[in-house]
Amino acid sequence: MATTRRDVLKLSIMGGAVALTGATADAALAGVPAKGGTDTVTTPITTPSRLAAKNMPIPFAAAFRRPPELIPYEQGWDPDGQPFEKYCLTQKTGTAQIARGLNTTLAGYNGIFPGPSIRVEQGTRTELRISNRLSTKGLLYPDPSNTVTHLHGSASLPQYDGYANDRTAPGKVKNYQYPNWQAARTLWYHDHNHMLTAQGVYSGLAAYYSITNEQEREQLPQGEFDVPILVSDVMLNADGSLGYNDNGHSGLWGDIVMVNGVPWPTMKVKPQIYRFRFLVGSITRSYRFALSNGAPFYVVGTDAGMTPKVQAVSSWRQGTAERYEVLIDFRKYKPGQTVELRNLSNKNNVDFANTGKVMKFQVVEDSPSLIPGSHSIGSIPASLDPGEHPTKDSGGLDTMSLTPDMAVAKRILRVQRKSGEWTINGETWDTVEKSNFTRCFANPQKNQVEQWTIVNESGGWFHPVHIHLIDGKIIGRNTNGGKPFAWEGGPKDVFYAGENESVTVLMQFDTGKHEGGRYMVHCHNLVHEDHDMMVQFAVGDLNNNDPINADKPVDETEVEGHYASNYKASYPEGT
Predict the structure, then answer these.
(1) What does the DSSP assignment read for 464-512?
(2) If you average pLDDT over residues 458-480, what whole number do you get?
(3) Run of H or E residues at 451
(4) 157: CATH
């Protein structure tokens, strides 16, 4: 039987994991969740990092930092009167100091992790020009560093949605077009290269992107008091390089927790109300966040925007790629007081000595903000108004107004592990590839509403399932008395299916001005996605907007001359 690229890649990844971590039989990760297991595994005898004690980062010793914000190199108006902004990014290697006294090589947007944040006004179209200047050999695998960029949470055309086989090779450039018509929300952009997504994101290809509008600015803290919190975990080799072990395609659990690329930082906060945009960028680990003094968080936003009702919670569960926006009220604290953000963890994580810590807040004296446009709010709101639905004139509905009687179809997605592969309804992305990318799980029409139930039949595993394109409303769970959890009161695009859980979601297939095409559904445990837990659906004609061929990457030498000069002038190396 002929050997396929898929077979070769799987073998190279499995072999590379051992070499990269220096793993032996007794040093492999202990306590990987067993089939059918349900308990959190805490503090195995061995840890995945190979660092000497003198190099291991110390919790709360480093200062918190925000990712830099990217500015457009060009702005203007389209012929139809729509504003646009153009941005440039380069995927390249860079270095970070995660371990004490050692450098770690990363592959990041502009060579940093997280990459530069992008913030755009609702209704402003953006063009994101991404140049792949990575090596012909990946950091964590021998294959070329092909990349695919997915703007997670955007209702993009299929050819700009980060379709897993729409690869940009080293030396190539792709212009991604984003409509940004959706309501204010926290998005993120990350690598989505099939079978190597986990390694790409873990190496550093991840960053924030947000849409803002007048309603969001009036109701929630801004500027200094609007804080991105990208939480991830990592394991390092003795020399500070990235270690990698996906434990037989089960998952990767690092022993170093980072916030915005900094291990266990301390953030100085003023006695004000802060808004924190939590994004889990770990490739496997899920978290249950809580404050050390038991103080509440106030949930004001979920994946796809503001929540109609503000909900107080003492903790919440968050998996890879989910976004939760919460308020923390520091007004009652005195300067000098501290409070820790902790991780209570969830079933079937592998936890180590310090993975229960995330970061520390240190309260300081109030003072004028140095960030333009900064303002907090005077009290915790009871409710929020996201404004009119942006596509209501063409049949778009507010996600949280959807009701089961609107659904024209009800579907079930069963997530399982079969013959060593992670599957959805018994199928994988290999099935899609062998069908010449025509095999679809569903084919709703534009603006139709459907009800999907995700059923976790994989035993002792949890799966954050991401459905591209849509915003969904959770209407039921087989746990929690059949209701959504308290923190799930807003629109979402990632749905945490815990062990033996089912979650039922209503969604409208609103494509805005375009007519749709093919989109992916996959587990956002990125190891599961790569092996091979991904299928697709099509909105309307599946031949619309070919996601691989409609707008292919081009050689960097073919890009117009002003790109290079504008990029160099606007974005010096490393920024």
Answers:
(1) EEEESS--EEEEEESSGGGS--TT--S-BSEEEE-TT-EEEEEEE---T
(2) 95
(3) strand 449-456
(4) 2.60.40.420
Q: Are 190 and 206 in contact (CB under 8 A)?
A: yes
Amino acid at 446: K
| Straight-line distance from the first to the last Cα atom of the chain, in angstroms, rounded to the nearest whole number | 49
pLDDT digits (tens, 9 = 90+) for 257-267: 999 999 999 99
CB atoms within 10 A of CB 251: 27
Of the pLDDT bands very low, low, confident and very high (cuts 50, 70, 90), residue 27 is: very low
3-state secondary structure at position 201: helix
Q: Identify the domain containing residue 257 by its residue range.
A: 223-363
Residues 339 and 418 in one domain: no
User: CA neighbours within 13 Å on the CB side: how many for 25?
Assistant: 0
pLDDT tens digits for range 94-142: 999 999 999 999 999 999 999 999 999 999 999 999 999 999 888 999 9
Beta strands in 213-349 (DSSP E): 226-234, 256-259, 262-263, 266-269, 273-280, 287-291, 297-302, 305-313, 315-318, 323-329, 338-343
Strands 494-497 and 315-318: unpaired
Q: How many independent structural domains does the chain possess?
A: 3
What is d(CA 295, CA 432) in angstroms, rounded to the nearest whole number? 47
Q: Does residue 137 lie within any of the structural domains?
A: yes
Same domain membership, residue 321 and residue 239: yes
Query: Does residue 476 form part of some domain?
Result: yes
Q: What angle do CA 453, 465, 128 make, to 5 degrees?
A: 130
Residues 87 and 129 in one domain: yes
